[in-house]
Design a protein that fits this description.
It contains 13 helices and 21 strands. It is an alpha/beta fold and 512 residues long. A seven-stranded mixed β-sheet has the order 12-13-14-11-10-16-17, sandwiched between helices. Strands 7-6-5-8-9 form a five-stranded parallel β-sheet, with helices on both faces. Helix 8 links the parallel strand 8 and strand 9. The structure holds nicotinamide-adenine-dinucleotide. Nicotinamide-adenine-dinucleotide (NAD) binds next to helix 7 and helix 8. Nicotinamide-adenine-dinucleotide binds next to helix 7 and helix 8. Its EC number is 1.2.1.3. Keywords: NAD, Oxidoreductase. This is aldehyde dehydrogenase (NAD(+)). InterPro entries: Ald_DH/histidinol_DH, Ald_DH_C, Ald_DH_CS_GLU, Ald_DH_N, Aldehyde_DH_dom, ALDH7A1-like. It comes from Pedobacter alpinus.
Length: 512
Amino acid sequence: QVNIAGVLHNLGIDTLNEASSTGLKWSGSSESSIVDIHSPVDSKLIAKVKFATVDEYKNVVEEAKTAFKTWKNIPAPKRGEIVRQLGEELRKHKEDLGKLVSYEMGKSLQEGWGEVQEMIDICDFAVGLSRQLYGLTMHSERPLHRMYEQWHPLGVVGIISAFNFPVAVWSWNAALAWVCGNVCVWKPSEKTPLTAIACQKIMAKVLKNNDLPEGISCLVIGDRNIGELMSYDVNIPLISATGSTKMGKAVGAAVGARLGKHILELGGNNAIIITENADLDMTLIGAVFGAVGTAGQRCTSTRRLIIHESVYETFKQKLVKAYGQLKIGNPLDTNNHVGPLIDKDAVKNYLNSIEKCKAEGGKFVVEGGVLDGEGYHSGCYVKPCIAEVSNEMRIVQHETFAPILYLMKYKNLDDAIAMQNNVPQGLSSAIMTTNMREAELFLSVNGSDCGIANVNIGTSGAEIGGAFGGEKETGGGRESGSDAWKAYMRRQTNTINYSTELPLAQGIKFDL
Ligand code: NAD
């Protein structure tokens, strides 16, 4: 058991009610909107949090705009130094923040710590990036002219995040946005505000230590109403939104209507193709962790296994055996493999999907169900389950955010790739094979249509060094590594004439 009061104290959240006190950057003051935050682990009240009012939201955005005037004029490597200090603070708080992530969201303690490690990693990445915001130089077609491009910050970057990665997604966006010279306004999921408050306190301390305005890092606690305000707000040139496809369509339409920029990181429906040449022992670890890790609540969770007919029965038996060994329970107990779903609505969705799957002809080889009794009082613990299905079934085409794994069979690899691609989402995908031709076909233009395509690694999880995101209904955005930073900046092309003439481009003559 974890002393959660001690964890909150160490993170600067002193009492149960402290989280509700008014802080300009991170909370509201309207008495009417006090919300109880319960843990899915044991359903205990963690804290009461006040949601921001519209006026408070507007004040925060004004605060951010003012801070931008200071921040954009600080050289990028110096901004990197602030992000380096954030990384150092996160190292100090990894133990406690990871525990709070686990307790508030319900993921395993290992994954809670892993999430904080991801934050540290992206800070390190961003520090290096702060000296590498490169533009290109071009050769001008005109004599004694020079052309180049440079990258400038956008201004206020709005971050809307989901409950399942309550802190990492913020850091993926914020660390990059900051070194690029932007300030951030973050609206975390209304289901996980405490981890966000803890992060805000850590960053506020770093800013204070450096005599910088807290408006560089703003937090607004609220539900989708605040998200909507942000989406329509012309003061926020870029919205980076992570969540369901339904949310992404609404945010995309609102931001698009004002011709703003957006990064959308939405739902996945991720498959692993298991060929006759797969190493089945290795595959088993990737598939089971992918399907049941974070109780199936990762955007990259494995939802579908597309298995060659020659190994289908053998692998199915291995899966059934492995599922029989899964320990479900308190995620803070490191002996357990599977923790709870986020709340009872998620449990309802899980049960509905099982019913729909059965109604469409799905055959369960590992049955699901809700657990009750000792240790399961929150009502959020469910059994990971497995069904044999066909890819066309409506429920299979849909992302259920729970540990339900679908099995399907294939004869030739082209058909398997077509099945993998034939869903509305396009986030993560994988092939398990020791055959080079199969692997290369999967990665080729005729292979996976997803933003992430792996060989001999499951679909779940990613390293921060690569650009993260997916195609189709996953939204098309990219965050984190590679050159994802470019989305947080505006490109300016500069042509400089150092001659005594004014030649026009394309040889156009214009004599006066
Ligand atoms: P959600 O869509 O319910 O909420 C996500 C965030 O959007 C919350 O902060 C919410 O308040 C806000 N929101 C909801 N409707 C909005 C609207 N109309 N306008 C503005 N803001 C709005 O998602 P969730 O249940 O918190 O998270 C689960 C979903 O997130 C899954 O679909 C999962 O695949 C997806 N996800 C995707 C990624 C990715 O990188 N692709 C990462 C994590 C989660």
